[in-house]
# Entry
Amino acid sequence: MLGGCATRPVNPAITQVDPGTGYRYLVYEQRLGEKENLLVLAFSGGGTRAAAFSYGVLEALRRIEVVGPKGKVRLLDHVDIITGVSGGSFTALAYGLYGEKLFDFYETAFLKRNVEGEIIGRVLNPVNWGALWSPGWGRSETAAELYDEILFHGATYADLARSGGPFVVATATDIATGTRLGFNQGVFDILCSDLDAVPLSRAAAASSAVPFALSPVTINNYGGSCHFQLPPFLRVFSNPATAPRPAARVMAQIHDLQSYAQGDKPYIHLVDGGLSDNLGMRAVLEVLEEIEALSMLGQPTPLDHVRRMVIVIVNSLSTPKTNWDQSERPPGDITLLIKATGVPIDHYSYDSVETLRDIIANWQKMRRLRDSAAFKANTDPAIAALLRTPDIDLYAIDVSFSALKDAEERAYLNNLPTSFVLPPEAVDRLRAAAGKIILDSPDFQRLLKDTGAHIVDAPGSASADDN
# Structure
């Protein structure tokens, strides 16, 4: 047994890109039709803490019913896109696959399970040592096997496409380049690979492969062999010298992804998505940049039909206290390394949220200016064209521990560790906190006011009863 070996799953190649098939947003959108309202959930990383907190958001949206111009609706039924990173990717993928059925088993099958202990147990089991010593296998492959057994049950992206749920993007990081790689067919087109055959458990393993604790997840890159071309609406951003602004994030991501099409990188080693985007927000910001720049040029965008976009940012960042400043002896090397990795990620998360708020403020300001009588009467049409912004109302609902009004509860959640095991009480308190934060969110209240809607049912919340 100790001399055994194992082979990692290999993502298959394609010889020709077909933009009309596969797990990609434009195909998903065709199924839905042109929706005026777009509801996006961004689930951050943070192990079981993130998985439970994001699940609490789903539970809250399932309970919250609002009455608007089109009658009574559940907010959960209007979720269109979910991005997931690390721990948040499990909840995102599982809900995308199972939908309503998830609420029957997720708590016991994953959230209140000692997933971390089971992974360690398999790694330490001599039966698995042969596979773990194989160059085609690693701790993350062992973890992916467990995720498949307890949660995904053999499901692939082809199954996710057939599920009829929201469009889900789990994100990982290329450890060689730092490139953010989202699991969707648009990205896999560049790799000349078929995402349909990739197991969801492997995507979740890649998105949550914390360096040192877990090994990278390796995928094959066949880039340059399938006649890939950028979609028409992105080609304007491919040349930095002529690309419209704002487009810095878009150009950087296109440049990074196009490097895979040169044919000199046959393997990509993926680790935790939090290293490149701990909030799952980078892709959202890039899309907003794209449509803003294209609007300024007067060119069509994929979201021209959207009039309202609601982005729920589920930030599971915690800040456990330390006693380092009480001792002359500094923290040990491993502790210091972990902290040194986490600090920039945490600040990067803050930057993403504030950038989104800046975009919202700028679009609102430009719209007020364009709509003013003085501007319309005195501004040259050519100049006015330069001030175009998308006609989309943006809402950023920040669901983070810092938004909790209860100081004691806030302190408790802030001290929860990042691991794949938590006490059942912690899981329940995370879930309950998510609903309270949504209902108290200023942007959620602004959304209700702007749409003329009001809450008719949100069980278990004093805020809902007040409404």
Notes: The two ends are 63 Å apart (CA to CA). The chain is about 45% helix and 15% strand.
